[in-house]
Amino acid sequence: MKVYRELNLLEDEKVIKKLNIAALVIMAICYGVLLLPPFNQHNFQSISFLLEIGAIIISFLVIVIIHEGIHGIFFKIFNLKGQVKFGFKNGMAYATSPGSLYPKWQFFMISIAPFVLLTTGLLLIMNTWPYAWLRLLVAAHSGACAGDFYWCYLLLKTPKNLLVEDTEVGLTFHEVG
């Protein structure tokens, strides 16, 4: 196998800055969308300001853990023998399966699964348990998915015949015979 391209996301400061800006833009857009019908049809309940701030912080930390856990589950679904590691570096939580190779479509699923599953779940919760801070939580999680969206974008731009190797710092694309 020949290396097509290597990406080091965790140590590339330019990419990290761009992803942080993208995260803020995505968060703002998502929050704006959640202010439109059908999301704002409820009379949102409010709890005291400090409780809301605490709930947002704790909920976001739980969401990050669940998000990375979903990546880990999908790594295992597509490669039962692969090892999954979790970490935190440069302000980013991550799940990785170093040395594991995946067809592009599988890595796309691994990358996008937490956004799809958590956003759907949070919107359902928001519909039945209408606290205003849930809007911010949905928007914050969507923004935090900027790195996953970046992986998906890169996967869509690369040739079809590649295998994706997950590394502890990014991705390596391998050309297949």
Automatic annotation (TrEMBL):
Q: Which domain of life is it from?
A: Bacteria
* Membrane spanning residue stretches: 21-40, 46-66, 107-126, 132-156
Q: Which UniProt keywords apply?
A: Membrane, Transmembrane, Transmembrane helix
What protein is this chain from?
A: DUF3267 domain-containing protein
